[in-house]
Structure formats: C-alpha cells, structure tokens
C-alpha cells in the first residue's frame, strides 16, 4: 500500500480499530496501540505482545525492544494527551519498518485523535465537560470512556474569600486529580467529576487544598450515569447554601448530611413543617430555659452519634455517668422508646426541621 492510498483510506475511518488494521496493512506488520498502564487500546491482531513494564516507561530513550525473533518498535502518540499512548509495531529482521513509515502512521493516528477526541488532552476534556454540563443529551461522551460504568461523584469548589487565586487553585486541583474533567460553572465555582473511590482516597488532599486556597468542597452522592452530573452538581450547590445558612461549612462536605435541608427548601408550607416536628423537643427546650440545663443539645448529639454513649460523652466533655443521668432525665420528661427505630428517626428529623426553621 502506498502512502497516498493510506492517507485516502485513513480519512474514511471513523473508529480506531479499523484505522489500526489499516496501518498494519500498510506496514505489513502487527500493530498495537497500548497505554502507559499496559492496556491495549487497539490492535490489528488478537495476539498480545510480550510487553513488560520497562517498555512502558515514559523516560526511556529506547525505541526498540527485542522479544524472541521479533523487534517491537515503540513511538509515543500525541504527547500532549491526557494519557500516554504508544504505538508498537512488530517487525522481523527480514521486513524492517522505515522511520518515514512510522512517522506517517503517528501523524495519521494523531490526526484521528484530534478529530474524534479518542485520547484528548486535559484542555480538550475540560471543554467537553463544559459542553456536557450545558447539554448532556447532545454531548458525545466517548472521550470519557474511563469514567463509564463507574461509581462517580460530582464535586463543587466554592471560594470563601472575596478575591481567590482561582488560577493557582485550579492548577493545584488538576495536579491533585490528574486527568479528571474540570470546568467553571455560571457562578465561577470550579466543578469536576471523579470516581467515588478516588474522592474517598483523596479527601485529605482536598482538605489541604481547601485550607491553603480558602475554598470549600461539596461532594455528591455516588451515581453511575455521567450525563446526570449536572443534576448532582445542583445538589452540591444547594447543600452549600444549606450549610452556609446553618453555619456548618467545613473544608470538605458531603451532600448526604444536607439532603434533608435541600428537600425542606422546596417546601412551601412552613406551618406543615412546624406541625410535623416532634413537640417533645420543645418540652426539652422549655425545661432547659427554666432550669439552665442542656438536655436539648445533649439529645441531639446523642442521636447524631447513633446513640453511642462513650462517643457522645467525649464530644460533650462529660463523664459517662453524667451523660447517663442526663439521658435518664430526658427520658423522664419525654419518654423515648429507644427500641423503636421510627421514634429515634422522627426525633433526628425533627432536630433538622427545628434547625431549618430557626435559620
């Protein structure tokens, strides 16, 4: 196959595998496109080459590797892409591949990547992410293949100072979570999506960034459909407003803690809220006012700690015996049936309604 024939045929390729097969026909050798982790992105044959980790090192200057009677030529593909890809071409000593042929193959693959964002660079991916948030149903999400069928979380990062160094913060955030799509929303918050496991393991890094650059992160509930990211980012923003209203902002926050407040914000009838709140809490509050006690707050902390005595005592700086006496006094006043889960759930929900109405 001539160079011209290859170019004409390559223009018609709309998928990577047919292009790889076409290049293999042109070179008359097996061809593989493999990323830096050893994953085969595309190949012209079902046989896997005997590639080791040493062959995938980015800093090696070696361009050919010996395996049995064959040489494997390696060339990097689109060095500005998010993930490093390499073109490997197997060749026997009797049928060598010329440097000009390899260069043409690389140019064709890079051109294909540019056209179809098969391996986009970070800037391209961020732009595509912005498109996804603007119009999720009409955005081609092929480039987000590594995020498909994963448990994902959406994250918002909101500045807590008047003039944040957003450029430096964005760069630091991209360094902490490389290859993750990142953009700004209409309110100039930074928004991104990452695998749920990544967010879990990088929480300490997010806390450090939040404190250094004076930002506040909100992390959504996990979800699996990337096209729903916009909806979960909306929950993050609403949770931020709820936490701000309650004066409970932390460097890193989970929306789960504020879901009930997001729901309450959409209720029109505040009278209904007051009537569904356990009036027993008002009994405790009135008792505290008359006797200068702290039973109302004690019950709240106890419930929030899943009724764990030691943890609650530590948090309230009380001896276990003192806490036990308080809980007994609470039970004397409002008679809580601790064996009934719906009762304690109702109390926890009532505390949230109380906090919501108080603010």
UniProtKB/TrEMBL annotation:
InterPro entries: CdaR-like_regulators, PucR_C-HTH_dom, PucR_C-HTH_sf. This is Helix-turn-helix domain-containing protein. Residues 295-353 form the PucR C-terminal helix-turn-helix domain.
């Amino acid at each position: 196959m001539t160079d011209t024939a290859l170019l004409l045929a390559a223009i018609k390729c709309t998928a990577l595998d047919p292009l790889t097969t076409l290049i293999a026909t042109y070179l008359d050798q097996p061809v593989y496109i493999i990323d830096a982790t050893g994953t085969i992105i595309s190949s012209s044959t079902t046989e896997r080459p005997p590639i080791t980790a040493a062959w995938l090192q980015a800093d090696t200057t070696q361009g050919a590797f010996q395996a049995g009677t064959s040489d494997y030529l390696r060339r990097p593909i689109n060095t500005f892409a998010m993930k490093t890809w390499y073109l490997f071409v197997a060749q026997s000593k009797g049928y060598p591949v010329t440097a000009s042929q390899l260069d043409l193959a690389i140019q064709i693959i890079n051109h294909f990547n540019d056209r179809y964002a098969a391996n986009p660079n970070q800037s391209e991916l961020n732009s595509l992410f912005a498109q996804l948030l603007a119009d999720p149903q009409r955005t081609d999400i092929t480039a987000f293949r590594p995020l498909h069928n994963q448990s994902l979380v959406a994250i918002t990062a909101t500045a807590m100072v008047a003039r944040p160094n957003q450029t430096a913060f964005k760069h630091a955030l991209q360094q902490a979570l490389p290859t993750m799509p990142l953009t700004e929303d209409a309110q100039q918050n930074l928004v991104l999506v990452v695998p749920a496991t990544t967010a879990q393991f990088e929480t300490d890094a997010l806390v450090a960034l939040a404190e250094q650059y004076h930002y506040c992160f909100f992390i959504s509930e996990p979800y699996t459909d990337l096209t729903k990211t916009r909806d979960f980012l909306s929950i993050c923003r609403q949770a931020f407003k709820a936490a701000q209203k309650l004066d409970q902002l932390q460097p890193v926050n989970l929306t789960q803690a504020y879901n009930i407040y997001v729901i309450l914000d959409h209720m029109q009838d505040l009278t209904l809220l007051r009537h569904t709140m356990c009036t027993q809490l008002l009994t405790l509050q009135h008792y505290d006012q008359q006797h200068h006690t702290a039973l109302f707050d004690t019950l709240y902390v106890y419930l929030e700690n899943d009724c764990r005595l030691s943890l609650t005592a530590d948090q309230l700086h009380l001896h276990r015996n003192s806490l036990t006496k308080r809980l007994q006094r609470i039970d004397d006043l409002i008679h809580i049936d601790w064996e009934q889960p719906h009762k304690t759930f109702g109390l926890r929900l009532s505390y949230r309604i109380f906090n919501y109405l108080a603010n």
